Amino acid sequence: QVQLVESGGGSVRPGGSLRLSCVGSGFSFLDYYGAVWFRQAPGKEREGVACIVSSDGVTYYEDFAKGRFTISRDKAKNTVYLQMNDLKPDDTAVYYCSAILDWEGWAAGRFPNRGQGTPVTVSS
């Protein structure tokens, strides 16, 4: 049974940084195609943020995240991270992680599981 617990969110000013963590239990991220961070802002559709492929650690980012966000992992801890720098008000959302089954999970935004999420608020 896939269980995910996200943490690390909070309230920051524009330009600030946060590091989100996603701890997986009951499974191994290595048994899945990869791990994804996605987010959902109030009144908006959910959108992918970043993906890390389990087999080789290759990473992918949505355009808004490139150059500001970094996805990484600790295989021993079965944990995925999202370092977010230069945060903007538009980054305000609840952030979730998911273990995806295949490339389509990232490309098509099919996130088969998630935790409770961790809220991020960026405001001056």
Instruction: Report the C-alpha radius of gyration, rounded.
Output: 13 Å
Spans of at least 5 consecutive residues whose pLDDT stays below 50 are: none
By secondary-structure content and strand pairing, the structural class works out as mainly beta
Shape: globular
Strand count, sense and barrel status of the largest sheet are: 6 strands, mixed
Average residue-wise pLDDT: 96
Number of helices: 1
Gap from first CA to last CA: 40 Å
Got a strand count? 10
- Residue share in helices? under 10%
Strand content: over 45%
Order of helices and strands: EEEEEEEEEHE
The order of strands across the largest sheet is: 2-10-9-4-5-6
Describe the structure.
By secondary structure, the protein is mainly beta. It is 4% helix and 47% strand. The chain has one helix at 103-107, and strands spanning 3-7, 10-12, 18-25, 34-40, 47-53, 59-61, 69-74, 79-84, 93-100, 118-122. Strands 2-10-9-4-5-6 form a 6-stranded mixed β-sheet. A 4-stranded antiparallel β-sheet has the order 1-3-8-7, with no helix packed on it. β7 and β8 (79-84) form a beta hairpin.
